[in-house]
Amino acid sequence: MEARYLARLVLSEMRIGVGEGTVRDATAAAFDVPVGDIERALQVSNDYGLVARQARDGGAGALADITLRVGRPVQAMLAQTGTVRDALEAWNEVAVEWKYDGARVQIHYDGASVGLYSRNMEDVTEALPEIVSAIEDHLAVPAILDGEVVAVDETGSPRPFQQVLRRFRRKHDIARAREDVRIRVHAFDCLHVDGEDLLDAPLTERHERLAGVLGDDSLVSDLWLCTDAGSVETVESEALAAGHEGVMLKNPDSAYTPGKRGQNWLKRKPDVETLDLVVTGAEWGEGRRATLLGTFELSVHDGGGYETVGNVATGITDEQLEDLTELLEPSIRAEDGTTVDIEPAVVFEVGYEAIQSSPSTTSGYALRFPRFLGVREDKDPEDADSLARLERLAADRT
């Protein structure tokens, strides 16, 4: 038993119920500095040890000395769902970008070499050599950029998100992987240029700096400023026609806030009912799918636990099943025959026709005609939909 806990501690998988907010508040209280100063320092460093030492040794003044550093990734700014009406009412003018079905990447260039980091801040530089080459060819000064890596076919049209995952996870035979899955990068934000942090600059200014420093329009995601719903719909139609997911709606004057999911970035997709649900179990398939997980148990979070809302097995190709099995196997906690218990770690986006009462789920609800839409790489289990939201949605439709 002791060995199990020691191994989890070393692997940073010891779940003891202490969240990041608790550590932040405790640091502020311990060294008598404003919580806002602690939070700001954490945003630009993502280093709790460094922030605690600076707060202890120099207080708020020392925390102000902590800035972005090329080669030290920070958490990505996140979006939530919203409507065009919401955006126009809040901002009057909306910055609109295409929403790519890819994987988030943070680009760091120190003037000599490129470092690439995933949404979870894992170093994926070696797995993406063509992105490294593209950045080295067009960046002349140190910079930190935010972008999306997309898999494309021979014509440049986007391929499914799961193809990008194959590249991000590849550790060996990278040359073969490049032949199998072509990728390209769309940079859409600029956090730092040549010693200057840009987190507090307006989005429109950051985009101008991005275009100027990168110097290749094919690598920079376009940004449209719209003042009416019709203009937004035109951009969205073009994005969908090009094979992309839809559009992002952003506040043109907003700052870049690492790790925050606020009202300044909104994700708009085609009108379809979806939920973001945590995978808490699965079943092994049969026949030729016997080595693959084929049916996935879905749950909403409820305080400190999870409540089931049924299973999903529709909308998943054999190729996707292989990817999902590879993704989920490390989280398997126990098996009983073909039934698998899975540690909550992965979030699925699931489409559905309706929410109905169900005595067979622990939440009391089930989805009618659930369909797998994709993996929410940008969400942790605690960011998935809650039981309270499920109940509100069910009530709204009765």
Helices and strands in order:
Blueprint: H1 2-10, H2 20-31, H3 35-45, H4 48-64, E1 78-81, H5 84-91, E2 94-99, E3 103-109, E4 114-118, H6 129-138, E5 143-152, H7 161-169, H8 174-180, E6 182-193, E7 196-197, H9 203-214, E8 224-226, H10 229-241, E9 246-250, E10 261-268, E11 274-284, E12 293-302, E13 305-312, H11 318-328, E14 332-336, E15 339-342, E16 347-351, E17 354-357, E18 365-368, E19 371-375, H12 387-396
Parallel strand pairs: 1-10
Antiparallel strand pairs: 2-8, 2-9, 3-4, 3-5, 5-6, 6-7, 9-10, 11-12, 11-15, 11-16, 12-13, 14-15, 16-19, 17-18
Helix pairs in contact: 2-3, 2-4, 3-4
Report on the architecture of this protein.
The protein has 398 residues and is of the alpha+beta class. It has 3 domains: 15-64; 78-268, DNA ligase/mRNA capping enzyme (D-amino Acid Aminotransferase, Chain A, domain 1, 2-Layer Sandwich), CATH 3.30.470; 274-396, OB fold (Dihydrolipoamide Acetyltransferase, E2P), CATH 2.40.50. The protein is built from 12 helices and 19 strands. Strands 11, 12, 13, 14, 15, 16 and 19 form a 7-stranded antiparallel sheet that branches. It has a 5-stranded mixed sheet with strand order 1-10-9-2-8. The chain has a 5-stranded antiparallel sheet with strand order 4-3-5-6-7. Helix 2 (20-31) crosses helix 3 (35-45). The longest helix is centred in the N-terminal third of the chain and has 17 residues, at 48-64.
